[in-house]
């Protein structure tokens, strides 16, 4: 079991930056691949970024490539978001699983409750 708590969301103007963090507790964090998802109002949840347990592998959805960076340390996973756009507005969730992101059918075992990101002028 692993418990996940996201933080760092908020209101930011277009072009601004935010850094989300996801703190993990419980089972050994280093055993888990970590993934960020987001869900905008009226839309389905979508994959944003993933990082392997070692940090050696990362993956991003096309719409955030070059703007978002996922990283991790011994206890947290981060999502650095730069040049934010209104279409990035969503609730952002971190998730953990022993298996690395594998595509559209990937559903991690453990989820946080999410943090709201709003990009608006």
Describe the structure.
- The chain has 121 residues and is mainly β.
- 0% of the residues lie in helices and 50% in strands.
- It has strands spanning 2-7, 10-12, 18-26, 33-39, 46-51, 58-60, 68-72, 76-81, 90-97, 110-111, 115-119.
- Strands 2, 4, 5, 6, 9, 10 and 11 form a seven-stranded mixed sheet that branches. Strands 1-3-8-7 form a four-stranded antiparallel sheet, with no helix packed on it.
- The relative contact order is 0.31.
Which key features would you list for this structure?
single chain; about 120 residues; mainly beta; seven-stranded mixed sheet; four-stranded antiparallel sheet
Topology:
Elements (H helix, E strand, L loop, with lengths): L1 E6 L2 E3 L5 E9 L6 E7 L6 E6 L6 E3 L7 E5 L3 E6 L8 E8 L12 E2 L3 E5 L2
Q: Count the helices. How many?
A: 0
Shape from CA axes? Answer: globular
Order of helices and strands: EEEEEEEEEEE
What structural class do the secondary elements suggest?
Answer: mainly beta
Helical coverage, percent range: under 10%
Quote the beta fraction.
Answer: over 45%
Q: C-alpha Rg, in Å?
A: 13 Å
- Give unreliable regions as ranges: none
Largest sheet: 7 strands, mixed
Number of strands: 11
Could you report the average pLDDT, rounded to the nearest whole number?
95
Ends: how far apart?
40 Å
